[in-house]
Q: What sequence folds into this?
């Protein structure tokens, strides 16, 4: 059964994905999917409003000025918009061509973060600090891995070696081991490791790796996770806390309990933007990991559902864009970006409502912290670029149009397609 | 997209849709979970939030001040001063060394001594210094360091230092009065604290207005004006300090009372302490107001009360004489005089008091038993007991506004007690009965003022926070203690005692002729805790009065275990009385005879 499916995938993958040599520049470009940008801007605005409203509370507990957080977040959002337009405008084929430079930059940053002395308040080798700003190396690493892995898989799809153990699976396992060693063990960042694993796993899945092999990789990963949990007992405590979130409210479960209190006390309509209490020292990481709970306290069930819908809409559009992406590389880029964002969103929110353990993961576009916002915006910029090359009508419609075009007046329908490109059409209309 | 829920994993699009459907499914589950947490379980989490966030604070009420008469006006003797506690929020102290330098410039002291509090770990509240002045507080606030904070708190200040320390008592660091007026009038002085219920941040700092916030304003305490005359009080205290040394006393107390209304004009104890510094007093006995909380066997001063009772009951007359056998044998025991010039001979009421004849006091009890007889019987015992307890209100607290007042002890008239006669023969001259100085002075005042027992009081008036003045009217406890003529007869008898001592060589008992001064000494044996009496330790007591046409001040002296040659009453109690009486006359507090 598995074999049959994987074979089908293999053949259809080859058929459906554009050949490796093609570049988007040869495809007629149309307007990008504006909803992507609009949803992103709405989320950024929500994030800014939240950070603005809790800025004084945060300053109260850390001793900085009341405007410290909001000023820094405004700068971060400005940088994020710049990053978005760079990745949007800079041709995606060029990104692919320069993947080695991206990997090199990520490796350098990671090395610096590991070598630099740590801040005693955050004793983890995760940040590169300069001129009062700090840069989280893992965000660049994920971005670089996204570009590299899309390229890696696209090449193997083209060569037909996607299921080859030596050429594909073994290198992937090797990379995962290296990442586990650096990110999970040296940087103690199991959350980001999970995001990387999920991103690469789903990209593999979409690229057409047979389920059986994915199972093998998954088994290896589960083994690694178990080892790292045993090696770092505080993770075990987090999992225990997760299983019994309210039994240790004064100790290990404190943040989980306070998050649930923040969410629950928001009620149906929330306390209002200016009225939350939990940010005043009760809920740790109010600006960051816990920001969804702060949002839910202020805007209640209605606001929370609206936020979930915003994220769902963003993810759904990204999924649609990936379906319509004109080549393997861009399709995998969009899928990777989608998995990256959605995994962080789900882990972050899930922890705040007592469904998942706390992982130290940011909420995309909302959480305080420049690096996260900049790289989510950058990856969304890539998706935005890809959206310029998707068909404007569904695949089913296109097939119907093609059938009718073959039997009827071809040219009149061609105008309706407006030059939208899809390899299924077998060429440009 | 119905097909997305039946994904075809054999195509790329199918796999993408499968994955994106999982994401949407997870978000839908989150939505359901949010409905459960925010809508269904809202009340639970709201309560949990309030449990953490809603804190209740007491807003302390300003304590009333205490004033006393000084000349013609009332002046404060206990005031409040807002002093400040300085604390650090150590995580906010960025440069502990420079902060320590700044603090030492403002507060003084070695900068290094501030470092431990400034750098304390795992706390957001570590106390650096107490009792900073308003000026120091302003300077510290001007530093504008987010890691430093001050908290104002009212402290009692005493412009006159240790003046009337035991009468005033002190206020402990919980704001509760201890000892003295502060304890007895704590409810009036302390007022009613207000309450603030507010949503706060995690450090308990109230946040901006919320509908859960409630506030009840505190009601300040009332001010109290004491009956003390500060001039007399000061003089009495310096006399006690001087006589304490001169008589090698262990403890010396005195009271000056106005017999016509029960007002205490002075009440003092030595040694003493400064209430502002109560926390550093190692010996809690210094807090005690011996004048009200230390009953002793008073000794022969009791003869004034026995005489009054015998006169009023008709058992004796003031100028009666009798044959003193120098000793009585009662229940097989000898009652004999301690006076050196005793001996069996004819004596009278005056000489009973002047020579302090114990046989005379016993004789008076015999007359109360059966006039003309020389036996003690049930009638005499019951009469004497009735006068002491029902008329002079001994054996019970007077209700003076002081903490820890003692009630003393009058042995019950238990006729089944085989040695009741002996016991009462002794109580008649002040042994085997214990009374406090305030009981003694109140009882004798009631005789001298014509028979009205006023409740002794330290409170002249109480001024409410709104300014309403309630004058503490003299409270009559007992109207016909004795007939008015008893006081008029006792007065010259007590004056006779003073004259006898003057003639006996006690030159300090010489008073100007236009004043009346009377008194009675008491030399009391001190009971051992194990039973019986010490052979060489005595308490010296004295009760007396000074006046012009009438007695104007009654004075009592309790000198605990003085070390003097001769009788403790004559040499330990009497000189203190004499000093106070001379002072009252010399300073013009007494109106001389017309």
A:
């Amino acid at each position: 059964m598995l074999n049959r499916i994987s074979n089908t995938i293999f053949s259809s993958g080859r058929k459906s994905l554009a050949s490796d040599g093609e570049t988007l520049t040869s495809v007629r470009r149309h307007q990008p999917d504006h909803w992507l940008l609009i949803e992103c801007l709405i989320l950024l605005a929500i994030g800014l409003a939240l950070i603005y409203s809790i800025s004084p509370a945060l300053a109260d507990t850390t001793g900085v000025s009341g405007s410290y957080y909001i000023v820094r977040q405004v700068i971060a959002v400005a940088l994020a918009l710049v990053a978005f337009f760079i990745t949007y405008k800079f041709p995606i084929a060029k990104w692919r061509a320069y993947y080695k430079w991206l990997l090199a930059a990520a490796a350098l940053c990671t090395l610096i973060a590991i070598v630099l002395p740590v801040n005693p308040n955050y004793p983890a080798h995760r940040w590169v600090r300069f001129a009062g700003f700090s840069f989280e190396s893992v965000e660049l690493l994920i971005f670089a891995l996204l570009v590299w892995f899309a390229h890696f898989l696209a090449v193997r799809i083209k060569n037909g070696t996607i299921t080859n153990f030596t050429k594909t699976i073994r290198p992937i396992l090797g990379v995962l081991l290296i990442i586990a060693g650096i990110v999970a063990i040296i940087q103690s960042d199991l959350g980001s490791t999970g995001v990387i694993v999920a991103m690469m796993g789903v990209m593999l899945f979409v690229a057409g790796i047979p389920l059986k092999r994915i199972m093998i990789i998954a088994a290896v990963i589960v083994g690694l996770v178990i080892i790292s949990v045993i090696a770092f007992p505080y993770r075990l405590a987090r999992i225990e806390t997760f299983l019994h979130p309210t039994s240790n409210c004064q100790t290990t479960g404190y943040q989980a309990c306070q998050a649930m209190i923040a969410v629950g006390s928001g009620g149906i309509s929330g306390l209002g933007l200016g009225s939350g209490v939990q940010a005043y020292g009760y809920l740790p990481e109010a600006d960051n990991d816990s920001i969804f709970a702060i949002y839910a306290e202020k805007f209640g069930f209605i606001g929370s559902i609206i936020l979930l819908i915003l994220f769902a809409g963003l993810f759904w559009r990204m999924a649609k864009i990936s379906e319509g992406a004109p080549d393997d590389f861009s399709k995998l880029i969009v899928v990777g970006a989608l998995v990256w964002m959605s995994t962080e969103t789900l882990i972050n929110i899930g922890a705040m409502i007592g469904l998942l353990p706390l992982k130290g993961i940011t909420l995309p576009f909302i959480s305080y912290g420049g690096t996260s916002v900049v790289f989510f915006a950058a990856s969304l910029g890539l998706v935005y670029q890809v959206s310029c090359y998707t068909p404007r009508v569904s695949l089913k419609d296109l097939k119907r149009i093609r059938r009718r075009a073959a039997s009827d007046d071809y040219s009149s329908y061609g105008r309706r397609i407006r030059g939208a490109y899809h390899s299924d059409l077998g060429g440009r209309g | 997209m119905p097909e997305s829920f039946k994904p075809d994993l054999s195509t790329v699009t199918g796999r993408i849709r499968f994955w994106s459907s999982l994401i949407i499914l997870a978000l839908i589950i989150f939505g359901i979970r949010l409905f459960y947490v925010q809508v269904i379980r809202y009340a639970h989490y709201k309560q949990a939030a309030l449990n953490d966030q809603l804190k209740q604070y007491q807003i302390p009420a300003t304590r009333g001040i205490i004033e006393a008469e000084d000349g013609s006006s009332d002046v404060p003797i206990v005031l409040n001063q807002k002093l400040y506690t300085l604390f650090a929020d150590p995580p906010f102290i960025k440069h502990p060394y420079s902060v320590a330098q700044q603090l030492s410039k403002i507060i003084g002291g070695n900068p290094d001594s501030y470092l431990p509090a400034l750098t304390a770990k795992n706390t957001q509240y570590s106390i650096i210094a107490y009792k900073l002045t308003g000026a120091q507080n302003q300077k510290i606030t001007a530093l504008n360091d987010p890691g430093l904070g001050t908290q104002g708190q009212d402290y009692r200040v005493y412009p006159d230092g240790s003046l009337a320390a035991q009468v005033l008592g002190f206020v402990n660091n919980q704001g509760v009065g201890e000892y003295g007026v502060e304890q007895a009038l704590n409810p009036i002085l302390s007022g009613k604290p207000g309450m603030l219920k507010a949503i706060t941040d995690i450090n308990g700092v109230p946040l901006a207005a919320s509908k859960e916030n409630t506030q009840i304003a505190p009601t300040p305490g009332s001010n109290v004006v004491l009956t003390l005359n500060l001039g007399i009080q000061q003089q009495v205290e310096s006399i006690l300090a001087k006589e304490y040394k001169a008589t090698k006393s262990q403890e010396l107390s005195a009271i000056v009372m106005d017999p016509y209304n029960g007002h205490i004009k002075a009440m003092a104890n030595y040694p003493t302490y400064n209430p502002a510094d109560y926390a550093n007093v190692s010996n809690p006995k210094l807090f005690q107001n011996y004048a009200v909380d230390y009953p002793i066997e008073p000794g022969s001063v009791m003869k004034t009360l026995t005489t009054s009772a015998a006169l009023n009951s008709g058992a004796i007359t003031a100028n009666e004489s009798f044959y003193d056998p120098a000793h009585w044998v009662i229940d097989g025991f000898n009652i004999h005089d301690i006076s050196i010039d005793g001996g069996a001979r004819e004596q009278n009421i005056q000489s009973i008091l002047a020579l302090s004849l114990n046989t005379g006091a016993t004789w008076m009890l015999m007359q109360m038993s059966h006039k003309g007889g020389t036996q003690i019987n049930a009638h005499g015992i019951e009469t004497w007991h009735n006068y002491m307890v029902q008329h002079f209100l001994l054996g019970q607290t007077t209700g003076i506004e002081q903490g820890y007042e003692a009630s003393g002890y009058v042995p019950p008239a238990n006729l089944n007690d085989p040695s009741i006669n002996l016991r009462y023969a002794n109580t008649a001259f002040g042994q085997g009965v214990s009374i406090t100085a305030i009981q003694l002075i109140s009882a004798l005042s009631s005789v001298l003022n014509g028979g009205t027992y006023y409740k002794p009081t330290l409170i002249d008036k109480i001024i409410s926070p709104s300014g309403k003045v309630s004058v503490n009217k003299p409270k009559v406890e007992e109207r016909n203690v004795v007939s008015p003529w008893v006081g008029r007869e006792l007065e010259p008898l007590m004056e006779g005692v003073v004259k006898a001592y003057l003639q006996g060589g006690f030159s300090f008992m010489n008073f100007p002729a236009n004043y009346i001064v009377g008194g009675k000494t008491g030399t009391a044996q001190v009971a051992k805790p194990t039973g019986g009496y010490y052979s060489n330790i005595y308490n010296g007591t004295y009760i007396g009065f000074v006046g012009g046409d009438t007695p104007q001040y009654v004075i009592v002296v309790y000198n605990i275990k003085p070390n003097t040659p001769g009788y403790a009453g004559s040499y330990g109690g009497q000189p203190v009385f004499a000093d106070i009486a001379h002072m009252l006359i010399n300073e013009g507090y007494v109106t001389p005879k017309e």
